[in-house]
Structures are given as structure tokens and as C-alpha cells.
């Protein structure tokens, strides 16, 4: 996790992935919410097991931290198979992928995270492995190069992507089952928090779970992370219980407000409202106003602020919604919303 991504980032550092292992559900029945995906996967896996054949290849898409890696491991566990884990960026040469594919045993699960980032030659090799359980490994260069066909044991590929739109058509077509994971409701996150707290041996009250769930941006990874931070606070400065009072006090220390906005999210909204009368204002100008890179504002803050209904992207620039004014405790100007507000020129670039 980089510094500006902070406590409410949906991405995990390597160290955090280790911390996550203990609370990761191992079987489908333990996987909370996402009922439609769970039900569909259950049918797919049971059907395949009944026939004694590996299930179709599975594509899991959705924002980070919603459970794609967890589901890939669950697929292998339910099938009683081994899982091999790699990622699109880790496969630099098609030879790397050929080595993995030809070492798979029958029925293995191959999990490729960030599959949209796989290099083109490796992607093409994957097509024949997925479809015909065969790969052609090219030996030599130039006119003397020869393709040696190698068999691959029947396996199931589980691909995960945060950007399904970036997958090529041929790649997408080779998955027999595509599941999209949605953000979790606060009620589902409360259930998840009770489960995690039980595993971690942390006492948690219902109002404590409600308080943490409301600040978790619909994302299990963030919910589990906030739980660990509130646990620290409760153990060090209070009675050890994750209750509403301790959750509020702990998350105030970490600058996470009651809707899950952190310092940077609030700085963006505050700049929009106070310095630009709510906008519209161009991305670069907004980024300079909060002392951040435009990419950070665009990729780290905006997706959540837009989803939370606090910021809108318009052709003329970023606009604070009425809800944003209220969230900051300001009175919105009357008659602005719905009408086209006057543009604040972007001083730094032509884009919005
Ligand atoms: N439905 C769920 N029930 C219980 N815990 C969950 C669920 N979904 C995710 N988690 C927990 O959230 C954490 C993040 O999940 P996971 O690593 O599977 O997300 P991901 O979508 O693969 O993220 P990334 O794309 O960043 O790899 C894990 O520790 C996991 O325990």
C-alpha cells in the first residue's frame, strides 16, 4: 500500500495479504454474501464433480478486495484440487507460462490474477491450452524455428480481473463461466465483521460492527483492515471490545470519517466546495489544489466519491454534489443542482 492509498484503499500490501490469510473463508458455505455468484459456482462445481471432469474455466471480475482470490482458492478446495497461483504481470514470456501449464496435474486449478495484464504472446498460448489442452512451444528463432506441440493435463483456469473491459474478445470467450462481484451491503459487512472478529478472538458488539461496516466502502478487505485497527485501539486505550464508542475513537485517530472518507477524499471535496464553489473544475486544477498528482485523485479518490454520490464527473469538470455539501456540513447554494453551473477554467490543462 502506498502512503496516499492509506487505510481505506482497496489494494493490499504483501504484508497485509499475510494478515488476511487467517480470516479468509476456505469453503463456499463460509463465503459471505454474493449469493448469486455463490449459487452459480456451486452448480458449476457440483455438476463437474458429478461428471468427474474439471469444470469450465472461470472468470471473476470486480473491484479489488471483494474476494476474487478467496473464491479462486475456494474453487480448488471444493474440487479437492491443488491450486497454482500466478499473475498476468508475472508472466513475462510465453515460455514462463508454458512451463507452468505443462507442469499442471490433471484437475489442477490455475489462478491467474490480473489476467488482463498478460503479455500478448502468452495470451495466445493460453488460448490453445484453455481450448484444446495443448500448447505449441516454439524452439529456435527465425526460419529455423520449430513449434513443438505439448499436451497439457485437463485443468481449470480461474482468471481474476479488476478491468474486464480490457480483456480481449477471444480471451473472454474461452471462459465458460463469468462472475461479477459487487460491492457488499453494510449488513453483509456486519456479518463478515462478526465472523472475522470471532476468528481473531476479538469481542465485538452489534453497534461496533455497524460502525465499522459503514466506513468500509462496501469492501471486505477494508472492513477487515479497519477491524484490526479498532482492535489495536480497543486493546491499547480502552476495554478491548470493538464497540461503537471505540470504533469511532479509533477511526478518528486514523482520519476515516463516518462514511469511510479519508483525509484526501475530504480534501478533494473541501477544495471543490470552498475554493471552486462546487465546480465544475478540471482534474489538474483540483489535484494542484489538494497537493496531489492528478492520477492519484482520479484513481484513488474519485471512484469511491462518485459511487458514494458525492462527486460527479461532467464534460466540463468535476462537480461536488448536493450530498457532498451536506457531508462537509455546508449549505449548498440554491438552484445550482440540475442546472449547468458556471465553469471554473482549468488553469493547468485542457482536459476535465
Ligand atoms: N465474501 C467474503 N466473505 C468473507 N471474507 C471475505 C469475502 N470476500 C473477501 N473476504 C476477505 O477480504 C479479503 C480480501 O479478499 P481477496 O484477497 O479475495 O480480494 P480480491 O478481490 O482477490 O482482491 P485483489 O483483487 O486485490 O487481489 C480477504 O482477507 C478475505 O478474507
UniProtKB/TrEMBL annotation:
Q: Where is the composition biased (Low complexity)?
A: 330-341
Looking at the record's lineage, which domain of life comes first?
Bacteria
Q: What is its EC number?
A: 3.6.4.-
| UniProt-annotated binding residues for Mg(2+) | 69
* Residues given in the record as DNA binding sites: 313, 318
Positions annotated to bind ATP:
24, 65, 68-70, 131-133, 174, 184, 221
The answer to keyword DNA damage applying to this record is: yes
Any single GO molecular-function term of the entry would be:
ATP binding
Reactions catalysed, semicolon-separated, are:
ATP + H2O = ADP + phosphate + H(+)
Write one Pfam family the protein is assigned to: AAA_lid_4
Gene Ontology, cellular component aspect: cytoplasm; Holliday junction resolvase complex
Q: Where is this region: Disordered?
A: 330-352
Q: Where is this region: Small ATPAse domain (RuvB-S)?
A: 185-255
Entry-linked SMART domains: AAA
What is the purpose of this protein?
The RuvA-RuvB-RuvC complex processes Holliday junction (HJ) DNA during genetic recombination and DNA repair, while the RuvA-RuvB complex plays an important role in the rescue of blocked DNA replication forks via replication fork reversal (RFR). RuvA specifically binds to HJ cruciform DNA, conferring on it an open structure. The RuvB hexamer acts as an ATP-dependent pump, pulling dsDNA into and through the RuvAB complex. RuvB forms 2 homohexamers on either side of HJ DNA bound by 1 or 2 RuvA tetramers; 4 subunits per hexamer contact DNA at a time.
Similarity field: Belongs to the RuvB family.
Note what the entry says on domains.
Has 3 domains, the large (RuvB-L) and small ATPase (RuvB-S) domains and the C-terminal head (RuvB-H) domain. The head domain binds DNA, while the ATPase domains jointly bind ATP, ADP or are empty depending on the state of the subunit in the translocation cycle. During a single DNA translocation step the structure of each domain remains the same, but their relative positions change.
UniProt protein name: Holliday junction branch migration complex subunit RuvB
What species does this protein belong to?
Micromonospora pattaloongensis
User: Which classification does the entry list for the species?
Assistant: Bacteria, Bacillati, Actinomycetota, Actinomycetes, Micromonosporales
Amino acid at each position: 500500500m502506498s502512503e496516499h492509498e492509506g487505510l481505506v484503499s482497496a489494494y493490499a500490501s504483501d504484508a497485509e495479504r499475510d494478515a488476511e490469510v487467517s480470516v479468509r473463508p476456505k469453503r463456499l458455505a463460509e463465503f459471505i454474501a454474493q449469493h448469486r455468484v455463490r449459487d452459480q459456482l456451486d452448480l458449476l462445481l457440483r455438476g463437474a464433480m458429478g461428471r468427474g471432469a474439471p469444470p469450465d474455466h472461470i472468470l471473476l471480475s470486480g473491484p479489488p478486495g471483494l474476494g476474487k482470490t478467496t473464491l479462486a482458492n475456494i474453487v480448488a478446495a471444493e474440487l479437492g484440487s491443488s491450486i497454482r497461483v500466478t499473475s498476468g504481470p508475472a508472466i513475462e514470456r510465453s515460455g514462463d507460462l508454458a512451463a507452468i501449464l505443462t507442469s499442471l496435474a490433471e484437475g489442477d486449478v490455475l489462478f491467474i490474477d490480473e489476467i488482463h495484464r498478460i503479455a500478448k504472446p502468452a495470451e495466445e498460448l493460453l488460448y490453445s491450452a484453455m481450448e484444446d489442452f495443448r500448447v505449441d512451444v516454439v524452439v529456435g528463432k527465425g526460419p529455423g524455428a520449430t513449434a513443438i506441440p505439448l499436451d497439457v493435463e485437463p485443468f481449470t483456469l480461474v482468471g481474476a480481473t479488476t478491468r474486464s473491459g480490457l480483456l480481449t474478445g477471444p480471451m473472454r470467450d474461452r471462459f465458460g463461466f463469468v462472475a461479477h462481484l459487487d460491492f457488499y451491503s453494510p449488513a453483509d459487512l456486519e456479518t463478515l465483521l462478526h465472523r472475522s472478529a470471532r476468528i481473531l478472538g476479538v469481542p465485538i458488539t452489534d453497534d461496533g460492527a455497524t460502525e465499522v461496516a459503514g466506513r468500509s466502502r462496501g469492501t471486505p478487505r477494508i472492513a477487515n483492515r479497519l477491524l484490526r485497527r479498532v482492535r489495536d485501539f480497543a486493546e491499547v486505550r480502552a476495554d478491548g471490545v470493538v464497540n461503537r464508542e471505540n470504533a469511532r475513537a479509533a477511526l478518528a485517530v486514523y482520519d476515516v470519517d463516518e462514511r469511510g472518507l479519508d483525509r484526501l477524499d475530504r480534501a478533494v471535496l473541501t477544495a471543490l466546495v470552498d475554493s471552486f464553489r462546487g465546480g465544475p473544475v478540471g482534474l489538474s486544477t483540483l489535484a494542484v489544489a489538494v497537493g496531489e498528482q492528478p492520477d492519484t485523485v482520479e484513481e484513488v479518490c474519485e471512484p469511491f466519491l462518485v459511487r458514494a454520490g458525492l462527486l460527479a464527473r461532467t464534460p466540463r469538470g468535476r462537480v461536488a454534489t448536493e450530498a457532498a455539501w451536506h457531508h462537509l456540513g455546508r449549505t449548498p447554494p440554491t438552484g445550482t443542482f440540475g442546472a449547468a453551473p458556471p465553469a471554473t477554467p482549468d488553469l493547468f490543462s485542457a482536459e476535465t
